[in-house]
Amino acid sequence: MPVFNRFLNIECPSRLEIAADGSYPAFRVAFSADGEIPFPQVIVRASGRETLINGEAIVGSEEASGRWHYQVSMPAGRAASERLDLQIEGCRRAEIQQAGGGDWIKTFAGVRLERAGDEAGSARHGQTGSAEPAGTGEGAAQAGAEQRSPSAQIQLAQSNGAEVKVYFGIHKHMHQPYYDTTNPDYWDGEKDEIFGSRGGNYTDFVPAAIRQYRDGGLDHGGLSTSWSGTLIEQLERCDELGRCGGRFSGWNRALSEMASAKTALGNPRLAFSAFGFYHPLMPLIPHRDIVRNIRWHRELIQRVFGAEASRVLFPPETAFHVRMIPALVEAGVEAVIYDSIHRFRACKDYPYAGIEEGMLPPNPADQTNPPVDDWLQLHNIWAASKISPSLLRPEYVGYEDADGELHKIIAIPAERYIGNEDARGGFGALQYPDVLGQLYQRIVDTGSFDPKHPPFFLLHSDGDNHGGGADSYYHHNTGQLVDWLKRDPRFELTTAEDYLQRFPPDPSQVAHIEPGSWAGADNGDPQFMKWFSRYDQPYSPDLNSWAVLTAFQDRVHTLEDSEPDHPALAEAIRLLLTAETSCYWYWTGQTGWDQQVTNAANLGLSRIGQAIDDLVASGQDRRGPTIFPPWVTPENPGGKRWGQGCLLDAPRESVLHSFVSDCAGLKSVELVLRSDTGEQRLPMHDHGPYPSQTGAALSAHYLTAQLPLGAGDVRYYIEAEDQRGNIARGSLERIFLA
């Protein structure tokens, strides 16, 4: 059978007619290759979202010459943009988990979308064209090979009196949640399969990659990796009980040994990132729970791997909000990783890409940073919006609390689009010289290079899922990466610790970052709506879980403050932190996940409920109410909101929502608004406990407040008082009210 080496041609419509609502019809794509493709697939990208088609949906046939033809019917869809981007790719090996970077070949095509009545619109509807795929002919293949092994003659460009160099790092995230919040030892055949299929990921893949960095002479080469406490504890049980056929006997040995490897500056090549033990969505949990998660995790890393956890935090889901900063600093964190797009969007004059970006336009209240002029549209990679190379560097970011105190921390960008492509398989899926070369050239062309603070960003992905978690990523593709870096002096792989030691950020320069998470969480919008699914419906499983959790947090923290030695407190705290695991919101609509928070809260309350009642009855409760971080609908009052495949004007009228709970009962809850005209207090309307459908023993009160029209750029916080006179104040937030 001829070996597949290249695509020969592609046939697809050059144009499609779309309806007024942005819907386009189904269409056909055909492509041919010089041999059979064991694993062909087509990716359609539109409006910031991807559709993957593979398997039986792609039909292939062979010619006598050995050429193969493939056809696929692309489903109808909806897009607000003027173009569909197609990525046609194939893996040359049937054993996809064993595929190396050189086994993946891809090419691109585009389909223009035109509305009825547009010039050359309906007359060309369904017209197809064929073309030689870019970068897939013999000459292009040879050029690609030369690109993957750049000549040692490459010269560094000069800018601002220094040689221009771009630094980057790699981060791998490892996590498995508890599948039953009330029984951490729950196990069945499905769990055995899930863990068993990740044997190398949880043992020796990471050390194998770092070994190649070290042996390849990369003085500063290493990677950071985040391991949740729930994953580690389950692996320890696998080791102890021989689960997964004994695959995890001594699972941490290679990792512990590699933990002693050092860079040229004496920092670990393998950095176990600071992390949240139970994988919580940190922007939405209380200060003390963030601190406890990080400290417990640090102790676990030391015990299991014999290494000190890094002072650089990878927050679960890459979810960051500046209100986290005080808790991170208290926990000993010195730098936090965030998704780069949220720094770009926080600039004035940000070039919003429309619905393709997958998020609403930035709220003007977040756009406080100066404009930049080096915006770059990446090519040969899916990038729904432009990036700014000058902003891809660590810097201080700040949060000002309600008392006017500024809290600062270093923030390290994880580049969204380049990282996403790297997550598909490393070298091969991502052509580092080409894509990073575009970034390098833009820096040179704009003269934006700062030799004291050169570019540095992370490429982050799951370290245990297909693509960035495959055997080939850590072995074959890493070998290609090392070979390229040895030949191309424009780029350097480095650890975050080495970079910060060589190029510390200026603490006098403090920026703002828009809230948000990684792209895989519904594009990581600033409102964290992946964890607020169905918020606009009469009942939301996600809102139910937040309401139940808020009430549980209040009781556990009240008991901790009043009776820190209570015998049931330790179990209650563990149940609480387990219930904060972000996964229990991620898979909304699946009863098994939607029920998890309630199960943990009910069990915990059964242990401490009487103690709480006794505290209240004796008047010993001196803690104010628990306030859940507020959210606003519509998200951008007077700006834009989501329509069906489009953006619509959002009403100026808006409502603020929150959950508040107190074991002694609520006396009053007020919204405090601060603007240029002064401060005003608005009473919040109490709708009573959120109506749970999971049998919750307790649920926090759901409160709302109508926001004033035309207040402009405001800061606000919630203040609540309980029946005992105890007062609590929430974090200081920001929003623009048109």
Overview of this protein structure:
- With 738 residues, the protein is an alpha+beta fold.
- Helices cover 25% and strands 26% of the residues.
- It contains 17 helices and 36 strands.
- A five-stranded antiparallel β-sheet has the order 7-8-4-1-12, with no helix packed on it. Strands 2-11-10-5-6 form a five-stranded mixed β-sheet, with no helix packed on it.
- Strand 7 and strand 8 form a beta hairpin.
- Helix 3 packs parallel to helix 11, helix 13 runs parallel beside helix 17 and helix 14 crosses helix 17.
- The radius of gyration is 27 Å and the shape is globular.
- About 5% of the residues have low confidence.
Biggest beta sheet summary:
5 strands, antiparallel
CA distance, first residue to last residue? 65 Å
Derived structural class? alpha+beta
What percentage of amino acids are in beta strands?
25-35%
Q: In what order do the strands lie side by side in the largest sheet?
A: 7-8-4-1-12
Identify low-pLDDT runs: 119-152
* Overall number of strands: 36
Name the shape in a single word: globular
Overall pLDDT metric: 91
**Structural Rg:** 27 Å
Helicity, as a percent range: 25-40%
Keywords: Carbohydrate metabolism, Hydrolase
Domain Glycoside hydrolase family 57 N-terminal: 223-345
Biased composition (Low complexity): 129-146
GO molecular function: hydrolase activity
